[in-house]
Design a protein that fits this description.
Layout: E1 2-3, E2 24-27, E3 39-47, H1 54-57, E4 59-65, E5 71-73, E6 81-83, E7 87-96, E8 100-108, H2 112-117, E9 122-130, E10 136-147, E11 150-161, E12 166-171, E13 177-182, E14 185-189, E15 198-206, E16 212-232, E17 247-250, E18 253-254, E19 258-262, E20 268-283, H3 296-303, E21 305-306, H4 313-322, H5 325-333, E22 335-338, E23 348-354, E24 362-365, E25 367-368, E26 376-377, H6 381-388, E27 392-395, E28 399-401, E29 410-413, E30 417-419, E31 422-425, E32 432-436, E33 447-451, E34 467-471, E35 474-477, E36 480-481, E37 490-491, E38 494-502, E39 505-513, H7 521-530, E40 535-541, E41 547-549, E42 552-553, H8 559-565, E43 574-577
Length: 578
Amino acid sequence: MNKILFILLFVFNSAYAEFNSKHIIELDEYSDGTHVQGKSRVRIRFLMDDVNGFDDTLIQSVDICNLKKRCERINKFVDDVFYDDNQVVFGHSLTTSGDKGVFIHLQVRNGVKGRKNLSHRLIKLKNHLVFEENIGYEVFIRLNEIGNGHYKPEFAGYAPMSPSEDKVVLYEPSEELNVDAGGGFNVQLDIGSTPRPVIVGLEYSRNDLREGTLQISPDISFTIPMIVIIEFNDYDLTQGTGLNDYMVKLNQETLATEYIGVNDIGNSLYKVRLDHSGLLTITEKGPFQNVSQLSQNNFEQAQRTFATAQITDTCVSNINSIGDGYYTYVDQNAAASFTSCLDVDPKVHMVISKINDSRNTIKFSAEKQSSSPINYKLKTITSHASNIGAWAMINGFVWDGDSGSSAGQLGNFLGTHYLNGVNVNNRSTAEAIIGFTQKTSSNSNNAMFYDKNSTSNFGNFSPYNYNLVSSTTSIVKNGNCTASSASPGETNAWSALGLKTLSGNKYLVMLSSVTGSETNAYDLCQMLKALSVNNAIRLDGASAASLYVNGVHKNPLSGLRKLYYGSARHVLYGIGVQ
């Protein structure tokens, strides 16, 4: 079971608002449930000792304003104001990505009393809110009663977050903190554990109260160690075993565990001490990477595991029950998405399109940086699809350059690639290549698979080099699993691209992992073989794995990946069907 608890640092004004550390803030899921491309969400929380007194402040509306005093109303609808645990919450604004929030304007109701009882109506933020695409902000404002029913708003801080279910805990150094983080983890901070107030949040992922992780973010050093109590299920384990037979690490550092007893349901309890925040991992074996900095490489490595093959029998059975019916349906409709393995291992989205159908055009999307001969703009899969008006689009192969964590970053092609007839990179260690011809008024697209180990004159791809993608990992060759997919290999989110020939027609098969799921080359091969795919390659994976179909990004990011990249990572290019 996965649960997100987000940890953040408050940014305080010089006039420090006294917070009570009893505030454990349960952040609700955004009620509208929508994701608006290019927009950022804002929610403002007023904290006060007695929310019943909020009516006396007579705040009618709340606006967030930029430097040019262009304002957006936070409480656009009546149900966007609600009460929650000594808080009054105003939400949810959709604000233009790339803008900066500088002022918060509190509009009082008509009447002298309202204006008198609220001492400040325009709050200037010491630290600007820089809005990013599909990332939300929680703004916290303390309303202090200064006597005779008069209130003074004091800006306390803000926290960027993904618009999903989160718990945010405020720690005030003058009081102890003891919070159930979920997943069998209990977090404790003693008085004086940090020199100033911090917002602490946690993300856990754990199965059966044994192996799992607890992410503690951002980077916080503790003057008095944080105590994490770990509940461990040793039922059915060999007598005498317990958490001490597992590895408990904070990033790459192995921690000592202290047995403290059992709880009321008989599970063992252990204690570990942390001098700083990071990724707490419980596992039987294997190295784990430091993700405290969330750099591209160590962040992705920390998400990866190596596992045995999943059971794909149900998926294969579902496909076999339809057989060539997939392709018959696509013959009629040019392209279609299918859900046969959406909820069963390997849990992937599937799109099949007819390549040599005049209704379709196979086209790549990549936008060159005008000032550079090799760099291209990294974009989300939705932006790439929009660029060419694609009905379906899948991410391409890996690239060199920026990580893709935000808009405006750049990258360049790795491996042999052609884009609209131009060779954009021929430096390749590619094992396999899929190339496409250009569609003309008299000819539809066609496609060809090239195997470096068996293709004579490898490198002469004409005429299948109008758009061409290479990969270092093939999955299927000539209908059989390749050496790279003969064993499970690396388990992660993946995308794959395959070619199928049937009755003289060519079909393009796109696979991409469902949000939050992981698979491997072996399991993907079982599915592709069931589809009678002749040849297939693996594309980029992990946070880059993305699929767009008919106006919808099918597998937005979740968990830590979402906190780092947003709902979609910016990738170098996409392979689309118009």
